[in-house]
Amino acid sequence: MKILLLEDELMLQSSIYEYLETFGYKITCFSDGLKALNNLKEYDYDLLVLDINVPNVDGLNIIKQLQENNIFTPTIYISANIDIETISKAFELGAIDFLKKPFHLKELSLRIKKELANINNDNKKYVVLSKNYAFDLETSTLYYNKKSQKLTNKRLQIIKYLAINQGLVITIEILREYIWLNEAVSDATIRTELSRLKKELHDNFISNIKGVGYTIEKL
Questions:
Q1: Are the beta carbons of 27 and 39 closer than 8 angstroms?
Q2: Strand order in 147-148's β-sheet?
Q3: Quick check: 107 and 99 in contact, CB under 8 A?
Q4: What is the longest distance spanned by two Cα atoms in the chain?
Q5: pLDDT digit string (tens) for 3-24?
Q6: pTM across the whole model
Q7: How many CB atoms are located within 10 Å of the residue 183 CB?
């Protein structure tokens, strides 16, 4: 697997590179956002691991510019900046994960393994959710009978996360971590959001496993 790593703290960059290399990943490193962006316009990668606050072009704008050029690559952000606006912007741009610095290298490797497994299992642009529904992983668009259905960003994030983990039961705690970014929201609030989402859908493809969580079954 080819991974591009953007990290301007050179000691951390070196540590991440050496650790991930032991798993057989091919790592290309950059400490400058503009150089990383130019490289990404020429070469393909399976996964991006991007710091946000880097010289010249920050990690968020890299993804924004890539998407404007129809380049969509799964991205994990690593950053010491954990204000809710920054984290929300990262997920709005399609980030698949966000890891706060400082972190243990093993935690990063576990998240990469999880995401690469998802990429391998869903090595396609669309995930079929039901007879009439499909989800575009690249653009985070829900299609009903080939026509896009408008939903709030939060509800699209929920469907995307369930689609990526299709066949797995996702608990309330996991939804709180990845969709609400560990905000102090109650279980009832999350269940209410899921209930309202299900009412907006024309097919009942999100299953509630009582006392456990939610899932989209593999077809």
A1: no
A2: 126-128, 133-136, 141-144, 147-148
A3: yes
A4: 51
A5: 999 999 999 999 999 998 888 8
A6: 0.55
A7: 10
Query: Is the per-residue pLDDT at 165 higher than 90?
Result: no
Q: What is the pLDDT of residue 22?
A: 85
The residue extents of the domains of the chain are: 2-121, 126-216
* Element holding 190 (H helix, E strand): helix 187-200
Give me the architecture of the 126-216 domain, per CATH: Orthogonal Bundle (1.10)
Options 3.40.50.2300, 3.30.450.20, 3.40.50.720, 3.40.50.10490; which CATH number does 2-121 get? 3.40.50.2300
What is the distance between the alpha carbons of residues 150 and 35, in angstroms, rounded to a whole number?
Answer: 36
Contact 42, 86 (CB under 8 A): no
Rounded Cα distance, 49 and 78, in Å: 7
Tokens for 59, please give them: 């990690």
pLDDT digits over 35-53, tens only?
Answer: 999 999 889 888 899 998 8
In the 8-state DSSP scheme, what is residue 24? T
Convert the pLDDT of each residue in 171-208 to its tens digit: 999 899 889 988 889 999 999 999 999 999 999 999 99
Closest by CA to 46, choosing from 137, 127, 112, is: 112
Q: Which of 20, 72, 30, 75 is nearest to 54 (CA)?
A: 30
Amino acid at 143: Y
